[in-house]
Amino acid sequence: MDMEEAKNQVFFSVPMIVTNLSYYSITLISVMFAGHLGQSELAGSTLANSWATVTGFALMTGLSGALETLCGQGYGAKLYRMLGIYLQSSIITSFIFSVFISILWFYTEPVLILLHQDPHVSKLAALYMKYLIPGLFAYGFLQCILRFLQTQTVVIPLVVCSVVPLVIHVGITYVLVHWTSLGFKGAPLAASVSLWMSFLLLALYVNYAEKFKHTWEGLSMESFHHVLPNMKLAIPSAVMVCLEYWAFELLVLLAGLMPNSEQSTSLIAMCVNTEAVTFMITYGFSAAVSTRVSNELGAGNADRAKIAVAVTLKLSVILACTVVLALVFGHNIWASSFSDSPVIKKEFASMMPLLAISILFDSAQGVLSGVARGCGWQHLAAWTNLAAFYVIGMPIAILLGFNLGLYTKINSLFTEIGSINTKTSLKTTCLTSEIVSFLISDVFYRKCEKSKNLTSYDVGAGFVDWLNLRPLLPGLHPPSDYTAHQMDPNGALCEQLSRENTAGVTASLTRML
């Protein structure tokens, strides 16, 4: 293992892990405060938080993934001015999607009732969602600016601007819930206030910090010209993220259809939440490898990008093994945070081997997802997740959980081993598929390296594709519709891009093969 690379990865990943856990905790703390108001309030806030995640927050996280490709490779290629343009176009994209999602959130109650949820709980969840709508816009903008800073390896300010609002959020939530007439409504409103606070802190930092004078030159109308190109990466990235989030929510719904559904749902929910917490750690490494790969590809250092991938995979798996060992020996303590029932604790312990395998696969799959974002392969990862989770995974879940009746064969101890086993199969398939995609792309690049006659390709291929190929094809020139006429402050040539033709890349790549 490259120890210098490993050290840099750890120094980058740890702040990102803290940042992600802090933002995750903001909405979770609001649910906790609301839950202490009563059983109905707990059910309503929990349902609302779950609905908000799968329909809004996950989508916003996915949409910002385009910046990991554009800003990451642009920074590596010293196209500093373009980073600010890409940030603005991504914020515009997030705003557009937030408007449509907020309309859905406003009519949450009839939607949840249509999904056969309890009417009273649905009404409370809808009330919670309405006060969380301002936070949706803040969260979308926040994810964009987070990626903007991440791709420039600026991570310490992210920690400060996430931990400080988190600490203040506890006080704000307590005051709004217990000291004002808002009560239950104060919990989601506090989350919205804290998310806006975090975004404004980061926005002020970017606007006034001297280190961003080349990457942020202020608002520009040029950003509107990059909205559609941005969406071509943002939408596949959002699909990639949402497909995985939705798959786990479907597992919870499937558990609710089993005999003894209350117990089955509780256990699946415990497993999903356990994986969610561990994935926050994995996501730190995913962000690290995305930044390293995109920066190195943009700078023309393909070999360094490959080393970064190998090192991150090893670090992520090692950390996952540490988490698994902690769960194996401390599963009773962890289960106690969810339930005091001895039966629940016993059955959770019985699922530890399968959950451990799932966490291990998740650690590697999360890193490979970061590689996909760094390389601009979001569309490949989206198709992979669609096939792995829904074409393969869910049919197996139904077959093992219901048709084969695994929940009846070993008493109630293995009530939902079918669903958990499905999750393991799901992760295995997803991991294998992403590795195959990675290897296919690597073979393609190796073939390109051997082609000495290739000096250009169709103008329809985009800027990201050119940056990906440039490190491996030193003689490859940018498409003719790109002009190079601006020098950066260090004297390096910057390509001022104006996309005029956005024809598909597939035909070009096929001809190159």
TrEMBL record:
GO aspect biological process, one term: xenobiotic detoxification by transmembrane export across the plasma membrane
Family matches, as InterPro entries: MATE_euk (IPR045069), MATE_fam (IPR002528)
Sequence intervals crossing the membrane: 21-38, 50-71, 83-107, 127-149, 156-177, 189-206, 227-247, 267-286, 307-328, 348-368, 380-402
The keyword Transmembrane is annotated on this UniProt entry: yes
Highest taxon above the source species: Eukaryota
Annotated GO MF terms: antiporter activity; xenobiotic transmembrane transporter activity
Locations listed in the record: Membrane
Topology in the lipid bilayer: Multi-pass membrane protein
Database matches in CDD domains: MATE_eukaryotic
Keywords: Membrane, Transmembrane, Transmembrane helix
A GO cellular component annotation in the UniProt record: membrane
One Pfam family linked to the record: MatE
NCBIfam families linked: matE (TIGR00797)
Family: Belongs to the multi antimicrobial extrusion (MATE) (TC 2.A.66.1) family.
Protein name (record): Protein DETOXIFICATION
Gene source species: Tetracentron sinense
